[in-house]
Amino acid sequence: MGRHIGVGFGNVPARFKCHRLCKVEMTPRRSGGLTRPQRQPEPCAMGGPLSAYPGASRLFDGRWRRGSVRLRFGEYAACRSPRNAAQPGAMWYPIGMDKRSANEKKRHHFISITYLNKFADTEGKVFAYRKDDPETALHLRPDAIAFERYYYSQPLPAGGRDNNTFENFFGTIESTWNPLAVRLCSSAAANFTSSEFIDLFTFLILMRVRVPAARDMVEVTLAEDVKATTRLLDQQGKLPPKPEGLDDDILDHLSVAIDPHMSLRAMPDLARGFGNLLDRLGFEVLHNKTDVSLLTSDNPVVCFDPTAPEGRVLPYQVRPPHGSIELLFPIDAETVLRGHTRLRRAGPRSLRHVVLTDRQQAKRINRFIARFGYRFVFARDRSHEALILKHASTSPVIDMLNGRVFGWVFGPRPTKPKWDA
């Protein structure tokens, strides 16, 4: 028979089951847990969903204690001290949230319709390639792809869930994209104002932290942390006896499900860390005049160390504070925003424009976009199917073992156990 055990692990609500008959449930609400019970995570603050949480900052701080699980995300440290971790980064969140809406939203888009519209063909559709089935081209309108039901819903203290707050807030940021894209595609963008740079960086940060590549990374990392803690408790004799008749290696066959709300709570610190990275970069807009159209993906913010040979590049693995960093972000099928440490200049920011006439450079950009795609790659036409197929088997994922994070790599996407609230 299965045996149920309630355990509270820090601030991480988790359930896990063993593939060998035994099901184990872990929850901070059980007073009989083997460690100090913790309160259920509160809904994200109404003042802005990317406000900081002490619990999240502990998980994603930039300094580590001996013996703690080290989480490295290949970017700048999200927080410099616990005191700073508790403060929201106001520069990136200038827009308030409206939590009231007449209609409940079910389809939560992790890539905004407004953004994907820029890659639509003359029929108003994009070609979407699933990395799980890259030989099938889905020809769909942007509102029919890149969404999950209730992906940004939040639990409420009194029960139930809030399905609209995140979607409404994201919509206020997305509403700035059309005018920003027009300006970026125009030579007049050289006179970008400070407020426009803030809008641009806010949009880039949102497109980095809201996507499944980022959220899955958080949940997989926490799941490995739970497994490592479970093994440690077992070694210390703090777990109940294992069910009779099962092997001693039962803990090696655990499947851990993490509450998805934990990855929502992590967004503030991920956003601050990525904001620190953006501060290191200067930017230019590349206007593609070749016959090679540009791709995009469900993980469109591409960032890497350009000094590494292309075949050895690791996703998001940069060397702060003095290492080189290159960032690519497709604006539409003819335009890409490029950031680089060598473009950063002292004084007020500026944005330069470069005409791209080298087909090999356009192909290089597409190779990185295809490699960084997580579940989907999007295209205006079908001329890139061989490239998409070549990189379909891998995505940016966290390389870790026994609770230790070794960094980002290109590898198979993890299979996450479903969380049943």
Rg = 22 Å
C-alpha termini separation: 23 Å
Oligomer: single chain
Could you say which structural class the secondary elements and strand pairing correspond to?
A: alpha+beta
Number of helices: 11
β-strand percent reads 15-25%
Please list the strands of the largest sheet in the order they lie side by side. Answer: 12-13-14-10-15
H and E string:
EEHHEHEEEEEHHHHEHHEEEEEEHEHEE
Number of strands: 18
The helix fraction, in percent, is: 25-40%
Commentary on this structure:
The chain has 421 residues and is an alpha+beta fold. 26% of the residues lie in helices and 21% in strands. It has eleven helices and 18 strands. A five-stranded mixed sheet has the order 12-13-14-10-15, covered by helices on one side. It has a four-stranded antiparallel sheet with strand order 5-4-16-11. Strand 17 and strand 18 form a beta hairpin. The longest helix is centred in the middle third of the chain and has 24 residues, at 212-235. It is globular, with a radius of gyration of 22 Å.
Task: For this entry, give a set of tags.
11 helices, 5-stranded mixed β-sheet, 421 residues, alpha+beta, globular, 26% helix, disordered N terminus
In short:
The protein has about 425 residues and is an alpha+beta fold.
Write the layout of secondary structure elements.
Blueprint: E1 14-18, E2 23-26, H1 54-59, H2 82-85, E3 107-109, H3 113-116, E4 126-130, E5 133-140, E6 147-149, E7 154-155, E8 161-162, H4 165-174, H5 177-184, H6 194-209, H7 212-235, E9 254-258, H8 261-265, H9 267-278, E10 282-288, E11 296-297, E12 302-304, E13 326-332, E14 335-340, E15 351-356, H10 359-372, E16 376-379, H11 385-390, E17 395-401, E18 404-411
Parallel strand pairs: 10-15
Antiparallel strand pairs: 1-2, 1-9, 3-6, 4-5, 4-16, 7-8, 10-14, 11-16, 12-13, 13-14, 17-18
